[in-house]
Amino acid sequence: MKVWLTPRNAFVVALLAVLALLPVYSALTGNTFMVTLFTRIIILAIAAVSLNLIMGFGGMVSFGHAAYLGIGGYVVGILAKEGIDTGFIQWPAALVLSGLFALGVGALSLRTRGVYFIMITLAFAQMVYYIANGLDRYGGDDGLTIQRRSDFGGLINLSNRTVYYYLCLALLLATVYFVWRMVKSRFGLVIQGSRSNDRRMRAIGFSTFRYKLTCFVIAGVLCGLSGVLLANHTNFISPALMHWTRSGDLIVMAVLGGMGTVFGPVIGAVALLVLEETLPHLIGFVSYVLIGKEVVAAKEYWQLILGPMLLLIVIYARGGIEGLIAGSRRG
Amino acid sequence: MLYLIEQCLNGMQLGMLLFLLAAGLTLIFGIMDLVNLAHGSLYMLGAYFAATFVELTDSFLAGIGLGLGATLVAGIVLEMIAIRPLYGRDHLDHVLGTFGLLIFFNEFVRLIWGPAGLTISLPSQMLTAVQVLPGVYYPLYRLVIILTTLVVALLLYILVMRTRIGMLIRAGASNREMVGALGVNIKLLYTLVFGLGAALAGFAGMIQAPLAFVQIGMGENILILAFVVIIIGGIGSIRGAFVAAIIVGLIDTMGRVFLPDLVRHFLSYSAGSSAGPALSSMLIYTLMALVLIFRPEGLFPASSK
Amino acid sequence: MTKRFGGVTASDNIVLDVTAGELHAIIGPNGAGKTTLIGQLSGEIVPDAGRVYFDGREVTALPVFRRSALGLARSFQITSLFLDFTALDNVALAVQAHAGHSFHFWRDAREEGELREPARIALAGVGLAHRADEIVANMSHGEHRQLELAMALATKPRMLLLDEPMAGLGPEESARMVQTLRGLKRDITILLIEHDMEAVFALADRISVLVYGRVIASGLPADIRANAEVRQAYLGEQDVVAEHG
């Protein structure tokens, strides 16, 4: 009944194939930078997928999602600094703390709606940001270098670049699959129903608050996982990990890729970060073609293009990239 | 005791600064229902404009005046080109669109003025301290900031409460549809309000500049504080913004100064000095959370008055 | 079954009994407080004074979703649906609301017969079976009203609070709605708020007249039709006004 070979699905499969084969390409060409870049992209994609769960499906626009990146990362960093290297303690601790923070923030902020919700989530994230700034023992605003990646005994060696890449990819796919199952389940329908019409949900007998809170906590835990992975990837944590503009980046990824779908944020994360890397080269190339001279643009300047592009996407193409591929569904 | 008075004045000064930002933000929010993350960019632009004009004209006052005009124009142009299509969209669109603007302005400033920051030097007669109370000396310039902002607040109050435009602004803040029904040129009103907000934000940036450093991203953290102010004060309420700005300014300053002493009392010296900003910001955000829980409409809801 | 209200400006000391199994209609001019009354009964609005009893149990302090669980369902005057869902999804959500908790994260809810079958039956009950897979936003106003009813029915209520189910319907659609409601009578207690007098007198077992938040008359349809005060206050017949003026 359903058509499986849609442009959208073809694109997703192609993207997955590229992600799966990237380390092979890297090994053949000796270009390790690609693996490092894409590890980072995959990790942030997990965060974007988790944000999209509450934002795209639950209608809860959290502007403080980077806080969980920070919490996940700092738990790993702080424990490592205190001599607890084992991932069997670091990772569960990070996830539990992320979940507890989400529980507290959600319990308070889900009583509000609309712009108040955006602002209160933002405010709590700022609070964590300033706390991290105040942690002198753990580097204060300079951040903290993590000497050793999480140790899982002989189980898996996180220090191997390729192994780590595939671990992150596997966790991303697991996250996407989990979220995909979830949004189709009873729980997921309740979440989407309360995005669509919360008042009606309560009238037909749902206590929407507890479902939304649960969803908020799940998203927090998943983003905490992303933080854990990020800290292990860069071997470094700093408050910049959860500056509010980072939360903005995550929203951009989720919306850029298309909020209505589970896989959209992955596309958004890839698009945003690849663009960030390649646009300066692109500018150089275009300028070489046009004026015969390669203009060397600083990497930062690409934001001159990204900013207005975001505005244009908001105004003209709300379905995001995925919406464009799938053909405009949202109108 | 003297120290306490000095810190109170510092808190007032921060509060005044926040008010300038929050007043525009709360009007834009209340009337156009627009979440404007680029408001901090106007604060930054104001500072850069003023720094440039002070340099060019070699006069502090002329620089501020020209900078103010430039920010006003920038605000109006911004509204007409980029903000107008966002009216009536949902808040997520606002957040994204204006986040894009914020990113753009940061890089725009880097392109024009370079990555290094600027400074604005004060005229020499401003560099003295005056005796505000017997034995209490306070920098003249900070006093000037407080007094100037109070005058601006008063003018704003008169504008909003006593003029025809003000009546429309108030009506718009509590009931958008009504203003439209009155046959007012909504587009023009929106542009004016946005321009006014931009000028206020730019003014805040330029008067703060001599005390700090003119740099990229300078408006980002203070913007969040301004958002906290308008949530505590009640969206759309100038009076609420004024009271909440002073409360937040005082708490932030006092928290930074006195909480570390408290911490030192219990923990180590170094723990105290670093914990100050964290603790004071926690105080502010806790206050905001309490307001949202017990008075979700803020302390002075715009619709009630 | 007793319901007592009072104190709220919109409803001034309303005392109202709806007997199990009857269709009780509330009529009254605009602004009489009819929707407020439904709000209080369903739990969206908390009365400042007075109590609400449902099936002998006090429910005054119960939140909306708990009352719904007890079997008290409402429809909305202004259509309130999940516009981006299909019709079947809308009704299935209503079924799901009364099928235990929804902390199920794994199984595809759209494949669950125990949710979909009762939903299909409820849709068929209001004549929408053929539109099950249509996105609600694309359906007509009349279909929305019927879907509203299907959703209320899908929660297997013992009492229905219907807020102007006929509002905005054409004559044919109204007639079909009257048919549907007549079929539901007896099995389900119904409190009906409606402006369409023809429908009210065709369906109601008893009628209460609400004016400025007060019940000015309550009784059998025939009594209400004959009641001079009602005619003056609401039906607004010129000759009655003339008699008293």
Spell out the helices and strands of chain A N to C.
HHHHHEHHHEHHHH
Largest sheet of chain A: 2 strands, antiparallel
Query: What is the assigned CATH homologous superfamily of the largest domain in chain C?
Result: P-loop containing nucleotide triphosphate hydrolases
Based on Cα principal axes, name the global outline of chain C: globular
Characterise the protein shown here:
The complex is a heterotrimer of chains A (331), B (305) and C (245). With 331 residues, chain A is mostly helical. In chain A, 73% of the residues lie in helices and 1% in strands. The radius of gyration of chain A is 20 Å and the shape is globular. With 305 residues, chain B is mainly alpha-helical. Chain B contains 11 helices and 2 strands, in the order H-H-H-H-E-E-H-H-H-H-H-H-H. The longest helix of chain B is centred in the first third of the chain and has 31 residues, at 2-32. Classes of the chains: A mainly alpha (331), B mainly alpha (305), C alpha/beta (245). Chains in contact: A-B, A-C.
Name some characteristics of this structure:
heterotrimer, B: ABC transporter involved in vitamin B12 uptake, BtuC, two-stranded antiparallel sheet, 2 strands, C: 245 residues, alpha/beta, 2 domains, 10 strands, 39% helix, globular
